[in-house]
Amino acid sequence: MTHPTDTDPGSDQAAQIGAVIGAVIGAVIGAAMAASGSGGRSPSDTTEILAITDAIVRLLIGLPLRSDGQLTIKSLAEEAGLKRNKLTHKHTGLKDLFYALVRAQHGRPHNVDALHKKHEELKAKAQALREERDDLVLQVQQLVRVVQVLELENEHLRQFSQHPVVLPLPRH
Q1: Which of 2, 10, 103, 128 has fewest C-beta within 10 Å?
Q2: pTM (two decimals)
Q3: How far is it, in rounded angstroms, from Cα 48 to Cα 29?
Q4: What is the torsion angle, in degrees rounded to the nearest 10, for the CA atoms of residue 12, residue 17, residue 22 and residue 24?
Q5: What is the distance between the alpha carbons of residues 126 and 128, in angstroms, rounded to a whole number?
Q6: HEC profile for 72-116?
Q7: How much of the chain is helix, strand and coil, in % rounded to 5?
């Protein structure tokens, strides 16, 4: 199976959108970090911030690595490799930024619409195949009954030929 962006002519567009999102997030985070100076931020805080921003970009362009790709805080935390409380209690600004970006793109990664359409087509095809299978099962059951009836009739004919009830008339 190929990845949707492997054959999709819009994959260049998705990459461009990802680059723009990454640049915007990078600029916002850079400005926030510069404004706060070192602000007592530990290296682990910086690592968490970078992990979260990378995860935001991956989720928004629809290319998750560690999560289900949903645009939720739970998926964002999984994608960043962090516990959810890091986003809900510690990095609330990034959580708010994520929600704002999700609302800006109407709540879905860009490739999800194509995947949903393909999913619906496959569901319809699977339903048609199930109906065809059920029809074939009924036909097989009917044919089995026909064969059983024919075998019984054949057995009766064999018994009849061994003990003829009708005698042939002699020829003149």
Answers
A1: 2
A2: 0.48
A3: 12
A4: 150
A5: 5
A6: CHHHHHHHHCCCHHHHHHHCHHHHHHHHHHHHHCCCCCCCHHHHH
A7: 75, 0, 25
Pairwise CA distance, residues 7 & 102, whole Å: 25
Per-residue pLDDT of 65-116, as tens digits, reads: 888 877 888 888 888 888 888 888 888 888 888 888 888 776 566 566 777 8
CA distance 47 to 55: 12
CA 76 to chain centre: 18
What are the structure tokens assigned to 94, written together?
A: 């990034």
16 neighbors 51 (Cβ within 8 angstroms):
no
Do 94 and 52 meet the contact criterion of CB atoms below 8 Å apart?
A: yes
Vertex 45, ends 44 and 49: CA angle to 5°? 115
List, for residues 11-54, the tens digit of each pLDDT value: 566 666 666 766 676 666 666 665 555 555 677 777 888 888 88
**How many residues are given for the chain?**
172
Q: In this structure, what token pair is assigned to residue 64?
A: 């998750």
